[in-house]
Design a protein that fits this description.
The protein is mostly helical. Helix content is 83%, strand content 0%.
Amino acid sequence: MAVAADATAPVATVRKKVSRPMVVAGILIVWLVLFAVLRGRQTLALAAADLTGLHRWFNDVNDTIGANRNSNPLFLYFFNEIRLVIENLVTFIQSLISQPTGSRPVPQIGWLGVVGLTGYVSWAVANWRVALLAVAGFTFFGLQGLWQESMDTLALTLSAVFVALLIGIPLGVWAGLSDRFNRIVTPFLDFMQTMPTFVYLAPLTLFFLIGPASATIITLIYAAPPAIRITAHAIRSVPETTVEAADSLGSTRWQQLLKVLLPMSKRTVVMGVNQTIMAALAMVTIAALIDAPGLGKTVVQALQSLDVGTAFNAGLAIVVMAIVLDRVTTAASGREEAARRSGSRFLTWRRPLLIAGGVVTAVLVYLSHTYVWAAEFPGQGSTGSHIASAADTATTWLQDHLSGITNAFRDVITNGLLNPFQTLLTDSPWWLVGAALVGLGAVLGGWRAGATAAVCVGLLVGTGVWSDSMTTLASTVVATALVMLLGVTFGVWMGRNPLVDRLVRPTLDAAQVMPPFVYLVPFLALFGATRFTAIVAAVVYAAPVAIKIIADGVRNVAGTTVEAATSAGCNTWQIITKVQLPMARSALTLATNQGLIYVLSMVVVGGLVGAGALGYDVVAGFSQGELYGKGLAAGLAIVLLGVMFDRITQSAARRTSA
């Protein structure tokens, strides 16, 4: 027995020495060797105007649905009815605040009434400081010359949020009360939140056509998951002792829900409303690609014509709206607690003041409904013209004086990282890339992640846009590497220094509020319409979430461990690299997961500014009818990339933390 044990010892030693990094390195080396031998063969390249059988079949399906939309019972009594209900809701809200109705040349409530209502509601649900911010923000829309566009965006957002909450909160309560339903709904929510915003557009327009109603339907579908997930979490977070106490007093299940669970989870539910509003605003702006009115449409048209000034002015309005809506809902979630802490004597006067404010608001609404001067925002939007002109001037100056620096930076990243990696992916045989992805997935995430990667690779081949998928994959991986570089640098700094964390975190929180479109505008001015613009915008868009996750991971490393390393003579660099980062591996993997998903979402949006690949295919599918099928296939490819990234990185995170 001793001899047998000795014989197996070398084998065990070899197995211990073969670590995951060594296997990953081996896969990459084999890939590079085979690439050198097989370069340019079986790459599945497809020209921009070429279509596969699947693309033509999608086109035929689209044509068939269009021809039978008003005769097929499924459309006649289901999809068309849903679209009609949403269209009536959107039209009603637009007629109130943004669009003329009937013989009226102005909406039912003009700018003065909308500003008054905004201030009053913000004061009622939050506080007077937030109300002043809201009034200033909405007045700014008019000064920009974007009042109607802003109100159209607000109308679509409110419509989508209303329906999303109408559906999402009851489902969230159900998921919070029922473990079985929670297990059923969670995978769907994970999938919906993994998909980039672009992906929702093509398939849903197949059923609901193009226009404001379809944009609202797509937006509410995209915005509903946060409401469901956060409401379920709020219900489950209520202490069991409280529920047991209510049960012991003879409360029915319905009374427990209304008198205990919902009141005690109100603050978290309001946070869910906040996330739903932010998701809706982000999607409404992107839905401009399917003819949704509002600020998004202005940004899209300006980006397509490379009009940086107009895009910046409209993008600024989107940012202001996002900040106002975010601050109102955030303050609303903690208003009662903040009021109790303040102990202000004005709290006793709050109700009479609210009544007086309601009367003043009603007067403002009446004036805006009755008089043109209170309905149409005065002036010609000269502030917006000045902003656009200043943005154009700044763009010209940057291009004239900083082009050497920006071009050098762009060339280093493009020629040093992007082009070589893209060449490796697009010029390798498809089966070689697929085998490498499956192998890496299995090594990093386990056999289930490898199996998921295998299925995704097979379906990517079937979409007929393999080459474009690999181009998008190259941009995504390079951008994610840059995100993690920023994430580790700033995350470690914030995690080790509380003062830096307090100073930087508000900026990161504000950056996460802004819709994706906004990030394209400044980098379009710096780098022009290139794929590099999309990559830099994706890095800036994804970096905040990665930095915050890594900072929290580093901060959660036990202080006693750091003190022990310090007492053992370790310097700062050794503590970071040998203690804090290794012990925060799960946070690093989670940051990679979130960074990949955010980057993928932004890279495909970059199809509007020259990024090409899958993003361009999706946009072209809306603008050119014969390419609809290819655009739909590109949307499916984006989903497959997102699922593959998500499963591999999530599995790796679980294995790391195990």
